[in-house]
Specification:
This protein is mainly α.
């Protein structure tokens, strides 16, 4: 158990650093790392992907709280935009967990891999939604929140790759979009992980110290280090060019996508 917990501590350091460097939720790092770790530990292969995603969401909840708190201290959260999005996110995150429970581990892993590939293409191409002067209404924000929450819950991420472009499309400045997105990541992680907890309660052959599809030793280890290591990632990011960051992150996503689709 000792060496296993060390693995999760290192995953947290790695996830926190890369999340800080690239300004995106740590799920894109945590999910593949946990799948590799769980395979190494000999966990039931049919359950590994669901377990990794549920555990990732539970871990992101703690780092998301810390990030949202920091942004709020700097008045970087637009609460009027957060509340309607969050109301939809709650529904979507639970729905995403239910959808994931209906998929096999291999299918779910392929979905995550394809998502990583699509995200890497978006980053490389630098495609962005054009800003508009239009204002989002409550119905649009709530329904968009459902979609963001569902997709994020299915693949085990904090949703920043969806929420930030959405907010920028409606004219919010980048810093405000990032801060509000960080706040939106908290309900995604909370209700997504609760969904994976509930649907995993009746599943057999889960490892000891699991609460449904949440593996507690991994949550504790990752949360303990990622909260602090994210600050180092931010410091590194400010010393690198945008182009270098974009290339490194795209390569990282492609490698992860190939791992998810091939291994």
């Amino acid at each position: 158990m000792g060496y296993e917990f060390l693995i999760y501590l290192f995953v947290g350091i790695f996830a926190g650093n890369l999340a800080g460097m690239f300004g995106i939720g740590g799920g894109v790092i945590i999910v593949p790392a946990l799948i590799a770790t769980f395979l190494y530990l000999g966990f039931d292969q049919d359950l590994i992907t669901h377990l990794a995603i549920g555990t990732s969401l539970a871990s992101i909840f703690f780092t998301g709280l810390a990030s949202a708190y920091s942004h709020n201290q700097k008045r970087g959260i637009v609460w009027s935009a957060f509340y309607p999005l969050a109301s939809g996110i709650v529904i979507g995150a639970i729905l995403g967990a239910v959808i994931a429970s209906l998929l096999s581990g291999d299918t779910l892993r392929s979905i995550v891999g394809i998502f990583f590939l699509a995200l890497s293409v978006q980053i490389i191409s630098s495609y962005e939604l054009k800003k508009t002067d239009r204002k989002s209404n409550i119905l649009l924000s709530t329904s968009s929140g459902v979609g963001i929450g569902a997709i994020s819950s299915i693949v085990g991420i904090g949703g920043g790759s969806f929420t930030v472009p959405y907010l920028q499309y409606f004219g919010y400045k980048m810093k405000l979009s990032i801060g509000t997105s960080a706040a939106c990541g908290v309900p995604i992680a909370l209700f997504g992980s609760l969904g994976y907890f509930y649907i995993g309660l009746s599943v057999e052959n889960l490892p000891t110290m699991s609460l449904g599809y949440i593996y507690l030793p991994a949550v504790l280890g990752i949360a303990a280090t990622s909260i602090f290591s994210a600050r180092m990632g931010v410091a590194i990011a400010h010393r690198m060019s945008d182009l270098a960051l974009k290339i490194l992150f795209s390569l990282f996503l492609i490698i992860n996508a190939l791992y998810m689709l091939v291994v």
